[in-house]
């Protein structure tokens, strides 16, 4: 089934339909959203796009929003977009159609649209896709049944229904809006209002700050990149205006991201997300950001390196603890960091606070009450008699006083070896902490004034693990196809350090046909100004066979074996076009086959470039291979490595295609060329893809893909 998404924007509706197996064609003017058809809807030739089962229009609601107060409304401009969207729907005559509109907007009251929109909206939804129902306005016409009265709802949420798939009777209507008595403008949040821990925050926002949450949305239960970008832009303007007015105190914004680790938008490694912007440039716009996560490494590196502080609670996973210590290992040895963590977690509900903006002597705290003392952070307060070490440690106090500010509150520590002297009750010395069982203690002589703890062997230093080899075969996949599959290791592979990776024994059968990248041949008729096309039958071609097909479908053509060229007769009127010429001469059609467009013409790439020579159009070099190379990709291994380039960061091996259909390609990583994987490394489920240079999956036609991954840990 096919969906046409008009004025798609971020494409949220299209993603929901695409996840359910629909073919989605999006139309938008902004190229940054990567729509299928990038053009002004006023210039759209909808008839060239083919038939659609449903058309969804999301017109810009800025002009109809009740929150628009900064400038006069330009309702005529908004009306033109809506009327054009309705015209497209009327021309395409889909089985289902919807026009999105906020319930509190003024679109339904526009005089120019009276008779075209339902005031109490019921939108038909295809059977089996009832969860796609969203508040929408349906276009009136010969396809919309007569309105039926709405019954009063008991709850705040509208019910969802389904429609039968019988074409012999009109589809049943799905009620989307509740009764007019429903006046709340703040959508009911499924997370924040029901968690009692957030109640003080809600009371502070609504009572102390005086924010009307019915008019301004401040709670989001799903990651909304667009809303976050809007907040950033608004705060940027507020900060700039405040500085221009010379205000001494600037307005600030606090953004709290809690429990969003399951949102895939936060896992992108490109560094262009809104969360990256907040941590990199948010401080310049007076925006503070707090992020809570169950796993540190799920947070992107751009966020982690720009943190100003971190609070760490008790961790239950040894790998996660080691990851935290690895993040902090540039500040102190892991041994001392581990001792601080263990002391901070000794009491229930306690946490370890690290303030990155301070110097190391004042950076580490147990909660916000006790500061940890480091080597070199204490100075003698006064002359004192030398004290003898007891069991290899100096007695509590040790004749030294910690440098820095005084305590916040009195210490509640019950361990006499935990805190320093009574003059500094809230300063903790990690050198005096009790070591875990199995950590050797090295005694010191009576004349020594330092603990032997710093010379204790580090706990995490284990014997160098052996090299690891992973043999992968797509026939043993747990899901997917031979060119896009998931491979499960029999047991989890842990590596505490970084490792060098190479790919060996790559075996891929060349089952690629000459028509895999496209089957259409386009030419222009200059006299008529029309675009014409012919479809190349699927198969593997030679130069002579391709020239014979061109002769029978376009014009006389000859294959010159000596130069590997094809010469096509040219009559000064008809000429074969390349993809670039298609975009320039026919950006909006007409003439494209169903499913093709100027941006995706699905043309065959065997001929390559050409030039005119008298009565001939000469293609100087033709290639019968659909691909010159294919790329083996793995996001779990690629994202952990330092791989750069416009082709992506997940490439682990490049395979050259140069022997023709039917041959088996064998390749491997070049000698001495290893990919550095940053540790610690944890592998269990690996996702592999075999793609062309543009990242499109290739068709292996049922032939398997196998290779071996070699991992050599650092010494």
Structure report:
This protein has 715 residues and is α+β, with helices and mostly antiparallel strands. The protein has four domains: 2-175, 3-Layer(aba) Sandwich (Rossmann fold), CATH 3.40.50; 225-383 and 391-450, Rossmann fold, CATH 3.40.50; 468-511 and 627-713, Jelly Rolls (Sandwich), CATH 2.60.120; 520-619, no CATH class. 16% of the residues lie in helices and 23% in strands. It has eleven helices and 34 strands. A six-stranded mixed beta sheet has the order 3-2-1-4-5-7, with helices on both faces. The longest helix is centred in the N-terminal third of the chain and has 20 residues, at 225-244. The two termini are 55 Å apart.
Features:
715 residues; five-stranded mixed sheet; Rossmann fold; alpha+beta; SAM-dependent_MTases_sf; 4 domains
CATH architectural type of the largest domain: 3-Layer(aba) Sandwich
Shape type: flat
Strand content: 15-25%
Q: Give the CA-CA distance, first to last residue.
A: 55 Å
List the total number of helices: 11
Instruction: Look at the structure and give the CATH class of the largest domain.
Output: Alpha Beta
Largest sheet: 6 strands, mixed
Q: Quickly give the structural class.
A: alpha+beta
Give, in spatial order, the strands making up the sheet with the most strands.
Answer: 3-2-1-4-5-7
**Average pLDDT score:** 75
Radius of gyration: 33 Å
Low-confidence stretches: 111-124, 130-187, 378-423, 431-463
DSSP, total strands:
34
Summed up, the domain count is 4
The helical percent reads 10-25%
What's the CATH topology name of the largest domain? Answer: Rossmann fold
């Amino acid at each position: 089934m096919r969906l046409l998404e008009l004025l798609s924007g971020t494409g949220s509706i299209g993603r929901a339909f695409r996840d359910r197996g629909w073919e989605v064609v999006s139309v938008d003017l902004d190229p940054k959203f990567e729509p299928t058809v990038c053009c002004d809807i006023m210039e759209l030739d909808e008839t060239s796009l083919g038939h659609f089962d449903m058309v969804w229009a999301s017109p810009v609601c800025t002009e109809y929003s009740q929150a628009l107060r900064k400038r006069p409304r330009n309702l005529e401009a908004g009306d033109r977009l809506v009327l054009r969207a309705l015209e497209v729907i009327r021309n395409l005559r889909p089985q289902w159609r919807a026009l999105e509109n906020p319930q509190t907007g003024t679109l339904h009251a526009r005089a120019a649209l009276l008779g075209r929109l339902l005031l109490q909206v019921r939108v038909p939804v295809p059977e089996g896709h009832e969860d796609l129902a969203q508040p929408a306005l349906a276009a009136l016409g010969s396809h919309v049944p007569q309105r039926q009265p709405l019954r009063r709802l008991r709850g705040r949420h509208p019910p969802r229904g389904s429609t039968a798939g019988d074409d012999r009777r009109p589809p049943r209507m799905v009620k989307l809006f509740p009764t007019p008595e429903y006046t709340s403008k703040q959508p009911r949040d499924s997370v924040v209002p029901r968690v009692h821990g957030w109640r003080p925050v809600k009371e502070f926002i609504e009572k102390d700050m005086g924010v009307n949450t019915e008019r301004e949305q401040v709670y989001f239960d799903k990651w909304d990149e667009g809303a976050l970008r809007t907040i950033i832009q608004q705060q940027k303007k507020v900060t700039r205006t405040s500085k221009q007015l010379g205000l001494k105190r600037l307005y600030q914004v606090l953004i709290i991201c809690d429990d969003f680790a399951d949102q895939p938008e936060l896992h992108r490694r490109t560094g262009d997300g809104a969360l990256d912007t907040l941590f990199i440039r948010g401080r310049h716009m007076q925006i503070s950001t707090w992020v809570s996560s169950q796993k540190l490494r799920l947070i992107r590196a751009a966020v982690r390196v720009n943190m100003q502080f971190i609070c760490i609670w008790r961790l239950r996973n040894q790998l996660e603890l080691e990851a935290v210590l690895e993040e902090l290992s540039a500040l102190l040895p892991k041994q001392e960091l581990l001792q601080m963590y263990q002391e901070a977690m000794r009491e229930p509900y306690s946490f370890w606070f690290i303030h990155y903006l301070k110097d190391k002597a004042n950076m580490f705290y147990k909660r916000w009450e006790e500061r940890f003392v480091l080597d070199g952070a204490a100075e003698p307060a006064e002359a004192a008699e030398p004290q003898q070490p007891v069991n290899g440690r100096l007695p509590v106090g040790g004749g030294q006083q910690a440098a820095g500010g005084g305590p916040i509150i009195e210490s509640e520590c019950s361990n006499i070896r935990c805190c320093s002297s009574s003059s500094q009750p809230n300063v903790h010395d990690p050198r005096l902490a009790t070591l875990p069982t199995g950590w050797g203690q090295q005694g010191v002589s009576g004349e020594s004034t330092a603990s032997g703890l710093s010379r204790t062997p580090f706990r995490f230093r284990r014997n160098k693990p052996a090299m690891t080899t992973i043999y992968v075969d797509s026939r043993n996949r747990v899901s997917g196809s031979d060119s896009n599959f998931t491979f499960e290791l029999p047991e989890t592979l842990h590596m505490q350090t970084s490792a060098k990776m190479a790919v060996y024994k790559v075996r891929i059968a060349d089952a690629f046909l000459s028509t895999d990248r496209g089957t259409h041949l386009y030419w222009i008729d200059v006299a008529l100004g029309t675009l014409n096309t012919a479809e190349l039958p699927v198969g593997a071609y030679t130069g002579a066979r391709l020239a014979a097909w061109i002769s029978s479908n376009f014009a006389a053509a000859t294959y010159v074996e000596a130069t590997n060229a094809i010469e096509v007769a040219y009559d000064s009127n008809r000429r074969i076009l390349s993809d670039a010429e298609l975009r320039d001469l026919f950006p909006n059609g007409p003439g494209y086959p169903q499913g093709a467009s100027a941006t995706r013409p699905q043309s065959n790439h065997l001929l390559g470039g050409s030039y005119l020579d008298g009565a001939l159009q000469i293609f100087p070099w033709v290639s019968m291979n659909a691909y010159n190379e294919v790329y083996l990709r793995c996001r779990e291994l690629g994202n952990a490595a330092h791989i750069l380039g416009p082709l992506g960061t997940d490439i682990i091996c490049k395979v050259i295609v140069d022997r023709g259909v039917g041959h088996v390609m064998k390749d491997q990583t070049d000698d001495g060329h290893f990919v550095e994987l940053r540790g610690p490394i944890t592998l269990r489920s690996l996702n592999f893809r075999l793609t062309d240079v543009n990242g499109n999956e290739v068709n292996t036609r049922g032939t398997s893909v196998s290779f071996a991954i070699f991992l050599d840990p650092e010494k």
